[in-house]
Design goal:
Elements: H1 2-24, H2 27-30, H3 34-58, E1 61-62, E2 65-66, H4 68-92, H5 95-122, H6 132-135, H7 140-170, H8 174-205, H9 216-231, H10 234-256, H11 258-267, H12 283-300, H13 321-342, H14 363-383
Antiparallel strand pairs: 1-2
């Protein structure tokens, strides 16, 4: 189990260092921002906490003092939680109110750390086995020390979770809203860590062995810290990640639309504004052009489109009405292209209208719809 605990500490430490390095890369443009400086201090304390955790797992003595790594880990964890609470205040509260409440949290954190250090020394912490500070071993002073530490972690989790929801609904900045939502998830996971840690301590004090379930606290801790690291950095990398996801989605749509666009282009070359090319350097423009050209090519087919053609039977069983409509439209397009090549004009043709007069709300909805039609068009071609 020690190996699993060490791995969890390493995961938490690595995620903390990754977040710290990422934020330090922004120091030149953000060093005068109070919120940024508080964030860097929080990440430094986070890194120290889990670095000391990994050190404590490997050696009972640090700087020649027994269990000092455990004490430093706990003290820095308290400071880290207080700092995280202050960050939330700076993100979501007016500057004057944030400063006042930050002082309250700072004083509380100092008092808690003083109490932990006193309890550690009174309980003879340097001379005790390191395992005592994992379970308490039934010693009243050690149990008190551990429970004070857990309460110091649980209370900020509760307050952060309660504040994140209303603050997230109030903010108009999407990146801040996502950060607050992710922070609330981290608070929940870390609260479960506190509960699991309490169970470990209480069961050990009662002489109950819960076996491998003792590791639940370490797993919750690693997962919570990894989530917290993401929440403290997402406001910076979130917009870039969103743009990347949009590009990937747009490129996929651009490729899916190609077979339909190609056949329409071959049927009506005049629909193309510029000579077709393989470059996607300006994907947004090219995707817009592809959608417009598909629509123009379809309109050129109206005299050849047989209203009675129906390919909805090719849709999967249980498919939605929208999917069946896409298959029907694809079948009509394929039939109309054949009719134009052979010069056949159906008696019941379409001389006006759009894809069944479908009116999408926006450009992305238009892309989604045409992508469905293009996918059905390609499958009909394979089936034929």
């Amino acid at each position: 189990m020690n190996t699993t605990r060490t791995v969890c500490f390493v995961i938490a430490a690595l995620s903390s260092y990754a977040a710290l390095v990422y934020r330090l890369s922004q120091v030149r443009r953000s060093r005068h921002d109070h919120a940024y400086r508080t964030l860097v201090i929080t990440l430094l304390l986070q890194c120290l906490t889990f670095t000391m955790g990994a050190v404590a797992m490997g050696n009972e003595r640090f700087l020649g003092v027994g269990n000092l790594a455990i004490l430093v880990m706990h003290v820095s964890a308290v400071a880290f939680c207080v700092s995280a609470q202050i960050i939330l205040l700076r993100w979501a509260t007016a500057a004057e109110e944030a400063a006042r409440r930050a002082r309250y949290w700072a004083i509380t954190g100092i008092a808690l750390n003083a109490l932990l250090i006193a309890l550690f020394l009174i309980a003879g912490g340097p001379g005790r086995p390191a395992s005592d500070f994992n379970s308490g071993s039934g010693q009243p002073l050690v149990l008190t020390y551990l429970l004070v530490f857990i309460v110091s972690q649980a209370v900020p989790c509760v307050t952060i979770f309660r504040q994140c929801g209303p603050y997230a609904r109030m903010t108009e900045k999407a990146e801040l809203r996502h950060a607050l939502q992710l922070l609330s998830v981290a608070a929940v996971i870390l609260f479960f860590y506190c509960l699991a840690r309490t169970v470990n301590i209480v069961t050990a004090a009662c002489g109950i062995d819960i076996g491998v379930w003792q590791l639940a606290a370490n797993v919750f801790s690693a997962a919570g810290i990894a989530t917290l690291s993401l929440s403290l950095t997402i406001s910076s990398w979130g917009p870039s990640a969103g743009k990347l996801l949009w590009w990937v989605r747009s490129y996929r749509s651009y490729r899916v639309l190609y077979p339909l666009w190609r056949d329409l282009y071959e049927s009506s070359p005049d629909i193309v504004l510029e000579p077709p090319g393989a470059s996607v350097s300006d994907l947004n423009y090219r995707l817009h052009r592809r959608v417009v050209e598909i629509r123009d090519g379809w309109r050129d087919l109206r005299p050849y489109t047989d209203r009675t053609a129906n390919g909805s039977a090719g849709a999967d069983r249980g498919a939605s009405d929208e999917s069946r409509q896409a298959w029907a439209e694809a079948a009509q397009i394929r039939q109309a292209l054949h009719a134009k090549r052979t010069g056949t004009i159906p008696d019941d043709n379409k001389d006006a209208g759009d894809f069944e007069d479908r009116d999408t709300d926006n450009f992305m909805a238009e892309i989604d719809w045409l992508t469905k039609v293009a996918s059905a068009y390609r499958k009909l071609g394979k089936a034929g």
